[in-house]
Design brief:
single chain, 338 residues, alpha/beta, 36% helix, elongated
Length: 338
């Protein structure tokens, strides 16, 4: 494969593949060398960041390339997350574009049986319509301390730097997503009928599933951490269910209703779990309730090293995104087991 280090799109694709461990045309070492050469070319042929070039606006191509690489790694990493795909509706939009999410009202109509010629007896019913909402976005920022200069001079690995930044950004976004999911209110769930707290009872769980399916008209699935799903027991256990418990740590189905694990995560910088191991979510419907909007292009800002007492250089990577909870065309129930 011919590699043109001046082709920004090709450099971005190879860099993303390298970060994801999927480079096919080159060895990892060759890919690292090609990416570094492309960055040096974009940096006016220099192997170090010259703050005078930054001051004079000569590093735009270099920073633009890094912005595109990190954004693509973050987006592809999110799309590759199985749990993310089950529950999250992702929109990547231009700056200033505020996508609207339509929330359909639950319209169930009475179907009347009438005798021939008696259609005037049918009660007129009105569509209650729908509402739309948008998800606000905010700048989210991470600092890269001097790493770019070390990459250009060959002291650090570009793929590792990008992977670490993307991993940190993805982790922060997933924490926001999981927090929205874990903290849905009784109102968002549709009322007290769909938000149950108490000692585990199989019939109560079944009733909640029935309510969710009746409201949405769709088959429900159960979501919870491994520890939470293990709390769902039943008096009738098939041999296949015992195999599920042995292989996965929880029954694959609860009285015919599918179960899916919610991967547990730590709150960033702590050993505190994001999800409660006592909560089972019951979700039915085609629409994914968590909305994520990534707006516009990211920004790499080098700052001003003259502001630092030790003249050290910081690079700030920033991206606008927002996370919201919008439940439409479906229903969600929650059972908190005390």
């Amino acid at each position: 494969m011919n590699f043109d280090i001046n082709d920004a799109n090709l450099v971005v694709d190879v860099a993303v593949d390298r970060c994801n461990g999927q480079v096919r045309e080159f060895t990892n070492g060759q890919a690292d060398d090609l990416i570094t050469k492309a960055l040096i070319t974009a940096n006016n042929g220099k192997t170090a960041i010259d703050f005078r070039d930054i001051r004079d606006g000569k590093c735009g191509k270099l920073f633009s390339m890094i912005e595109l690489i990190i954004k693509k790694v973050v987006v592809e990493g999110l799309v590759g997350d199985e749990y993310f795909n089950q529950l999250v509706d992702l929109r990547v939009v231009p700056l200033g574009d505020k996508p609207e999410f339509k929330v359909e009202d639950a319209n169930w109509f009475t179907v009347s049986k009438v005798a021939d010629g008696a259609q005037n007896a049918v009660r007129r019913q009105h569509l209650t319509g729908s509402t739309t909402t948008t998800v606000p976005t905010y700048w989210n920022v991470i600092k890269i301390y001097e790493e770019l200069s070390r990459v250009l001079s060959g002291q650090a690995n570009m793929a590792e730097m990008i992977r670490d930044v993307a991993k940190s950004f993805k982790q922060n976004m997933l924490t926001d997503i999981y927090s929205i999911w874990a903290n849905a209110t009784t109102t968002q769930l549709g009322g007290a009928t769909y938000n149950i707290t108490g000692v585990y009872d199989e019939s109560t769980m079944l009733t909640l599933i029935d309510h969710v399916e009746a409201k949405s008209g769709n088959i429900a699935n159960l979501y919870g951490t491994r520890s939470a799903l293990r709390k769902l027991t039943t008096g009738v256990v098939a041999d296949s269910a015992r195999e599920d418990m042995y292989n996965m740590g929880y029954y694959g189905k609860f009285n015919g209703t599918g179960m899916a694990i919610t991967p547990q995560r730590h709150t960033v910088g702590t050993d505190t779990f994001v999800f409660s191991d006592s909560v089972i979510n019951v979700l039915a419907g085609p629409t994914k309730p968590i909305k994520v909007v990534i707006e516009g292009n990211p920004l790499v800002n080098s700052g001003n090293l003259m502001d630092k007492a030790d003249l050290s250089q910081e690079y700030i990577y920033a991206q606008r995104y927002g996370v919201g909870f919008v439940l439409s065309d479906g229903a969600l129930g929650r059972y908190t087991i005390s």
